[in-house]
Amino acid sequence: MSSAQGSSKDNPQRISILGSTGSIGKSTLDVVSRHPERYKVQALSAHTRVDELFEQCVRFNPAVAVVGSEEAAQRLQDLCGAQNLSIQIEHGAKALEQVAESINTDVVVAAIVGSAGLLSTLAAASAGKRLLLANKESLVMSGELLMNAAKSSGALIMPVDSEHNAIFQSLPSTASGVNTEGIVKILLTASGGPFRQFTPEQLRVVTVQQALKHPNWVMGPKISIDSATLMNKGLEVIEACQLFDMSPDGIEVVVHPESIIHSMVSYKDGSVIAQMGRPDMRTPIAHALAWPERIESGVEPLDFLKVSGLHFEAPDMQRFPLLRLAFEAQREGGTAPTVLNAANEVAVDAFLTGDVAFLQLAEVVEQTLSRSKISPTSDLSTIISADEHARVIARELVQSFL
Ligand code: NAD
Ligand code: MG
Questions:
Q1: Residue 369, exposed/middle/buried by CB under 10 A (0-12, 13-18, 19+)?
Q2: Quick one: average pLDDT of 61-68?
Q3: Class of the 333-402 domain?
């Protein structure tokens, strides 16, 4: 059991939330604020949104705050100075790693979006923290490395992603997590996103605004686009393989448009265990914070008399090829998931700025994968160079589409 287990009035757990101004970061602060006796905010971080971070500093009085640049740090310093807030203000990626591995941090919430979260997530895993993992891209990029780092340090990785948290809740518990004994398959549910019923002709002309509007969840822009292309589900297939030591063949994606069942586990004896709840990230966050205990999250329980129905269908990998590409990358292994993730990050940025069309997102990823040399090794420098090379190729492809 991790040293970060257990808290009391005299001994609250010290939490560092990396990416506290994002959607997951704010939901985490909402849960934490309901339990001041259990949790003390040690550190908060934002990339550019200094004013929002300052408001969080006033409310939660962390010991440390980290921002993206020297100018942002100066601005936050001025704001805090004017309020007589004494907070250690740092900037840059190294400072995030230092917070993640600090002896003053018990729990790290990895809520930065994309590959920018990789090194701080790895630092938390290597330092044996309780790691609340929202930043799925870091696990996709560095699966084995991250899981091995946690194994050797004794870090407890608690999935925050609602599906993986649901799977964790549906698997047999052990003292240090869960195991997969007796299971046949993981059933990973997907809402299907805003374009579930769109024809290829309709998909060709969808706008950024349409893609950002998820039917069930309110999330940051990158994961919203990934949900619209089903790449989010693809990243989650890889995430599930890594977290639960499964092969891609042991994972089945099931489209469930109501987002009430957050995922399921199917057992040898015919039992299927599902976790259900409202689509509100405070539930998995509260579970990941308190496990094996339960704490209030602010989320109302489901009223089954008001649930109009639960529906299921197979995903369409022809219309949503990024899901197929993610399965293929995980089967290929090595640096293929790193390349997939890097190309997707470049493609999503280009889509958000209007440089590529919706259907070109998959083209950028597919062509980057086919032009990249996939290496079997998984050390950090190999991962970083595979990520950098893939970005160069993906950017060239984006340019060629302009
Ligand atoms: P968001 O865009 O709302 O927030 C991102 C956070 O990361 C912000 O605090 C931002 O300041 C910080 N950030 C951005 N770029 C950075 C950089 N270069 N360096 C340092 N910090 C940076 O994103 P989100 O929706 O909260 O998602 C965060 C992560 O959680 C993603 O990996 C996402 O896939 C995962 N996730 C989110 C949800 C959800 O409901 N939002 C659900 C499951 C998993
Ligand atoms: Mg999810």
A1: buried
A2: 98
A3: mainly alpha
Count the neighbouring beta carbons within 10 Å of the beta carbon of residue 314.
9
pTM equals: 0.97
CA of residue 243 to ligand 1 center, whole Å: 20
The closest residue, in CA terms, to atom 16 on ligand 1 is 47
State if residue 116 touches ligand 1 by the CB under 6 angstroms criterion: yes
Q: Can you give the residue ranges of every domain in the chain? A: 13-160, 161-280+302-328, 333-402
- Convert the pLDDT of each residue in 146-157 to its tens digit: 999 999 999 999
Please check the confidence at residue 6 and state whether its pLDDT lies above 60.
no
Q: In this predicted structure, what is the pLDDT of residue 8? A: 62
Centre of ligand 1 from the C-alpha of residue 110, in Å: 9
Write down the CATH superfamily of domain 13-160: NAD(P)-binding Rossmann-like Domain (3.40.50.720)
241 lines ligand 1 (CB under 6 A): no
Q: Considering every ligand atom, which ligand is closest to the CA of 221?
A: 1
Nearest residue (CA) to ligand 1, atom 43: 161
Measured distance CA(322)–CA(320) in Å, rounded: 6
Q: Is the pLDDT of residue 198 over 50?
A: yes
